Amino acid sequence: MNGEKPSWLIEIVSKLSELGIRLDEAKNVLKMEVAPESLREAAKILIQYGYDHLASISGVDWSTKGTIEVIYFAESYEPEKRGTLIELKTATSRENPKLPSLVDLWPNALLLERETWEMFGVVFEGNPDLRRLLLPPDWSGPPPLRKDYRVVEEGIYVEYE
Amino acid sequence: MLSMSSEFVSSRLLFKEGDESTYELFIGPQHPASGHMRFIVRLKGDIIVSVDPDIGYVHRTMEKLAEGREAIKAIPLLERLTIIDSHNVTVALVTALERLLDAEPPPRALYLRTLLSEINRIASHLYGMGIAGIMLNHSTMFMWAFGDREVWIQLAEELTGARLTHTYSIPGGVRRDLPQGFKEKFEKAARYMEKRLQDYMKIFLLNPQIASRYEGVGILKKSEARRLSIVGPNLRASGVKYDARLADDYGAYKELEFEVPVREEGDCMARMLVRVEEIKQSLSIIRQVLEKMPSGPIFAEKYLKLLPPKTREQVLKTGHVKLPGIFASLKLPAGEAVARAEMGHGEIFYHIVSDGSTKPYRLRVVTPSFRNVVLFRYLPPGHRFMDFPAIYGSLDYFPPEADR
Amino acid sequence: MSCPFGFVMVGRLEESARKATKWLVEKTPIRSLRDWAITFSLWPVHFTTSCCGAEFAAASAPRYDAERFGFLPFNSPRQTNLLVVEGTLTKKMGEAAKIVYDQMPWPKFVIAMGACAIDGGLFYNSYNIVRPKDILPVEYYIPGCPPRPEAVAQAIIMLQEKVRKGEWRKA
Asked: Of B106, B198, B338, C74, which is least packed with CB atoms within 10 Å of its CB?
């Protein structure tokens, strides 16, 4: 973001800092790290300012640290705000991953949370519809996108000219 | 038109009150009006009560496979998400990789990427219109749209060498330069296309039978479209002016003038008309690109200087890029990158997390069809069963993209 | 089974009539007539499996018209005799393919299209794919990713030659 910051951005930053959330700005993405308890508060503030839907929910499995990080991206369709995405990062433990569900605040989180549950095993409490989405119905293995579920991969042979 | 093949479409009676009974019907993967997915439809008489889309029939686990391969191998892997529109899928991935690697493509490469993106957008909209036609059993529209699509596929083949899987953008630039005589071929194709668009309007969209099946059916309200995060022509037909070409900075769109067509009604007819308008806008964008194309290299200097001098001269003379050996094991610096692009179906979103090795730690992609799936739960209830293929065709939903 | 002469045959008489019919059909003039008829009316089922479906649709489109070979995609599996596996078969879709193949009447053929149908293609190490060779008896494989529509037309012509000469599997 070059030039001076728009006023809505300054207000969002100040309100979220009151909640004790750490903020950081990179090119066109406003990043913040949130604890799972203040996730719903942060979501309500963002919806007030026009970020009324989510672009994605993705999980990242840090097996060495023992946590699963879940990253939310909020997006807005209004002309001044569409260039900036807001990134919310939370972390839960790997053995018992639980997060509050945001379906009543952001309705399109329904399918995104379902997919994260299926692929990582993160339980979203309050989601009315957690069932299989993409995997076959008789899937009996561990959640596939975790790092301990390995698929066979060949190495490559590189010849330098 | 919806002739049920009575074996894989099984129905069972759920309950009966008086004269009305509620049935549950499976419209399975083997059906001309279902694509590669299954719908579990509940019907009361002839009125649809609820629809549950059952996706996952083409789940090829691309996110997991991308974690085990080098970064540059992710480009042909992710191209197969939407094979009809493959450059728009990969230009966002390459933009994200360039933001992570801190490599700037030269201006001529940005213009060439825009050129191929717009050719793919026209081909993708023609595919969508052809499938919408065959769902209403209008096979003339299917034949004409697919025949005209060959014109644009042949133009893309001249530029890149492949019909559908172009693999044209690489981190640092593009792979091939503009061939001779491209501008005259494009002018011929553009004149042909403008005439054909009028023909399509006459036989398909202004046809009274099709208009009666499309007007007032499947209305999507503006506030719901924003909350449900709908993208693409479906969003623009409901009155929201949003296009990822305006939101994110990729290609040469900042220096070109184009309009984003928006309609207010939100029904199936509005969605098809927005697609026809977008084809016209794409033709005008390609004209501007071919006029304003700057001269210069097509591959970034940062990687060009890694080639041995003889190969470098050959690259600059013929315009065919040879990749330097380092691309096979390109180390991505630790960090994250985000990029968005506008495909024919809507906005695609990439998020790459890297921990400093040659393979990405996590590659997240959210495709436009995955964001539009919720419309199958939301739009059909309340309509008659015969409106279901009309709604499906107008949404331009592509199952391999949603399942990744 | 009722016979055109107007009386119903039961028991041994029906069995021997069936055997006689089978013997008659295998005699040369009727067999070559049957092979000729099947050759020029190979109808595939409308079963899009994956991304090669775009080139399969282009093969039925005006430029590479496949209908001149008698190749008309049709809705119901009970009235078709060709199954084209286009592209990757995932586990969910593989079950559906097996059910559709079992519903088709004999004689039936399978063509596997694309690199993913041969041995997994680009997704060879994925946890969710199945090789068509393991569940269906495939007659011809078409390499390519995706194969050009001319290659699809060539596969149809090769299948037609094979059927015409009578060298195909018995049920």
From this structure: B198
Helix, strand, coil percentages in chain C from 3-state DSSP, rounded to 5: 45, 15, 40
Model pLDDT for residues A24-62, shown as the tens digit of each residue: 666 678 888 888 888 888 888 888 888 888 889 988 988
- Note the CATH architecture for domain C46-164: 3-Layer(aba) Sandwich (3.40)
User: What is the spatial distance between Cα B297 and Cα B343, in angstroms, rounded to a whole number?
Assistant: 26
CB distance C127–A151 less than 8 Å?
Answer: yes
What is the β-pairing status of strands A29-33 and A22-26? antiparallel
B248·A77 Cβ contact <8 A: no
| Residue C90 near chain A (CB below 8 Å) | yes
pLDDT for res B205: 87
Number of domains in chain B: 2
Task: List, for residues B321-346, the tens digit of each pLDDT value.
Answer: 888 888 878 888 988 889 999 999 99
Q: What is the ipTM of this complex?
A: 0.86
Cβ neighbours of B69 in C, within 8 Å:
none
Task: For chain B, list residues whose CB is within 8 angstroms of any CB belonging to chain A.
Answer: 55-56, 59, 61, 63-65, 68-70, 99, 226-229, 235, 240-242, 246-249, 308, 311, 325, 328-329, 338, 340, 349, 351, 353, 361-362, 364, 366, 370-371, 373-374, 403-404
Whether B55 sits inside 8 A of A58 (CB atoms) is no
Write out the residue range of the structural domain in which residue B78 sits: 62-403
pLDDT confidence of residue C157: 92
Residues composing chain A: 161
**Which of B265, B274, B258 shows the shortest CA–CA distance to B220?**
B265
Interface of C with A in 110-129 (CB under 8 A): 125-128
Rounded CA separation B45/B182 (Å): 57
Supply B80's token pair: 């197969």
> Whole-angstrom Cα distance, residue B254 to residue B288?
12
Query: What CATH number was assigned to the domain covering residues A7-125?
Result: 3.30.460.80
Nearest CA in chain B to C89: B58
- Which pLDDT belongs to residue B125? 93
SS3 A29: strand
CA distance C104 to chain B (A): 11
- pLDDT at position B193 is 92
Q: Tell me whether residues C93 and B77 touch, CB distance under 8 A.
A: no
Q: What is the pLDDT of residue B2?
A: 34
CA torsion through residues B318, B322, B324, B325, sign: negative
- Say if residue B104 is in the same domain as residue B166: yes
Query: What are the phi and psi torsion angles at B336 (to 5°)?
Result: -135, 155
Contacts (Cβ under 8 Å, ≥6 apart) of B65 = A151, B77, C123, C125, C126
Instruction: Show residues of chain B in contact with A136, CB under 8 Å.
Output: 56
